[in-house]
Amino acid sequence: MNDINPILGNGGIHHVAIKTRDWTRTMRFYEATLGFKMKVVWGEVPARAAYLDAGNGSYVEVFEDLTYSPAPNGAIVHFCLRTDRLDAVCERARASGTLVTMEPRSAELNSTNGVGVIPIRLCFFEGPSGELIELLQSAL
Fold it and tell me: Is 35 exposed, middle or buried (0-12, 13-18, 19+ CB in 10 A)?
């Protein structure tokens, strides 16, 4: 995970942005259920925004928009969170009332670029604003 992007330098995904109509529920889900930390908040009700720190320099940016109505499957197919506790995090999400759309399972990525077979464990669930979240556990 310490590879440097030759163009961006010490780059990578900084954040994925989502909108929510229910600020309180969204904050509770990301902080209490997934363990994110509030990094910075700006704006005023009903148009606040925040960076929620997922760890390792990755963020979810949340925009409050009381008129937001999520489109089926939206423009972002999903975003993925790295974890080394996949099953426990999936159960925590389920216990919070979220819909698990793919149960935890083990799989293999058969690379076509010489990396070899990569064992992974993954699952998917919905966030409180309809966003699709993948959890991925992998040594890669």
Answer: middle
Residue 59 · residue 79 · CB < 8 Å: no
The whole-angstrom separation of Cα 35 and Cα 132 is 17
Q: What are the helix (H) ranges across 20-119?
A: 23-28, 86-95
Determine contact, residues 70/26, Cβ cutoff 8 Å. no
CA distance 55 to 121: 19
Distance, CA of 58 to CA of 52 (rounded, Å) = 8
Q: What are phi and psi of 14, to 5 degrees?
A: -85, -50
With beta carbons less than 8 A apart as the criterion, state whether 58 and 15 touch: yes
**What SS3 class is residue 89?**
helix
> Which of the residues in the chain have pLDDT under 70?
1-2, 8, 11, 73, 75
As a whole number of angstroms, the distance between CA 31 and CA 126 comes to 15
pTM, entire model: 0.79
Which residues are CB-neighbours of 13 under 8 A, at least 6 positions away?
58
- Rounded CA-CA distance 12/3 in Å is 9
Q: Please name the amino acid found at residue 56.
A: N
